[in-house]
């Protein structure tokens, strides 16, 4: 198994062109967040913004709007239950995150269906959390033209592929990834990335990360990186590394690492990696 290390990130974080502008830095849509779990999609959107995405929109329940703008007026809002607006919003984006705090109701299923069906072959879909659970239930079919990146934790992975924890091996995970025709970021300690026929193991991460929202945050970093970095595989590996690298640094002096703390550190740590070239 290959290791995800610092060198990959140093290679990957680009020096920005002098004349670049927001449209070239990734147009991201993060979809999810019921009235109960708005925090999940706000963290996803914030992570995309702080990882350098040029334009970020969050599609969520109306009730989360004020909270979203209190955290970041830079982020645009749409109501995820207004399907015409959601279809339009999907069309204009480079990367779409679907699932954090999405819920498991009939309304959640409709949102997921709309996003999957509206995505085109040039777009990347990061499928996380409740979107994985809804697909595992089988009531929504995974019919999409978008490139899919699944980001399950172990519980979601078992649900999705229908295998018990004791039956999971690198080989069975690779087979499942092949069947899904997708990239899989299998989160854990450590996180593994299944991409093409390679398997990578992350070398950062620690137990201070065991706080709700840590995975929601990773989805935003993945989206932000894929939006800015042409080599998608390198972008994914770097996002996985940097998310937990920041947590490792914080854990030197903090017993717990909050997802929002990781988010705030992103621009500074990215500056350091870009300067290390
Ligand atoms: N602030 C917010 O708005 C937040 C909103 N959030 C949103 O909540 C939604 C539900 O997501 P979820 O992950 O909390 O619950 P769910 O899908 O039921 O999975 C749990 C099941 O899987 C199993 N399991 C096995 N291994 C596991 C592992 N390594 N890590 C975790 N679980 C593991 C576990 O087994 P057990 O621990 O019971 O043995 C249990 O049976 C989702 O939309 C998410 O985005 C959260 O992000 C929190 C912050
Ligand atoms: N003990 C640990 N060691 C390393 N990484 C961890 C540990 N606990 C949590 N994490 C990381 O935190 C994230 C948790 O993701 P997830 O369970 O989806 O959280 P949530 O849905 O609450 O946002 C993953 O990236 C995982 O690798
Ligand atoms: Mg999660």
TrEMBL record:
This enzyme catalyses:
(6S)-NADHX + ADP = AMP + phosphate + NADH + H(+); (6S)-NADPHX + ADP = AMP + phosphate + NADPH + H(+)
Q: Which residues bind AMP?
A: 187-191, 215
Which residues make up the binding site for (6S)-NADPHX? Answer: 40, 101, 153, 216
Pfam families associated with the record: Carb_kinase
The protein's required cofactors = Mg(2+)
Domain YjeF C-terminal as annotated: residue spans: 5-273
Q: What class of enzyme is it?
A: lyase
| Stated family | Belongs to the NnrD/CARKD family.
Q: How does it assemble?
A: Homotetramer.
Q: What is this protein called?
A: ADP-dependent (S)-NAD(P)H-hydrate dehydratase
Organismal lineage:
Bacteria, Bacillati, Bacillota, Bacilli, Lactobacillales
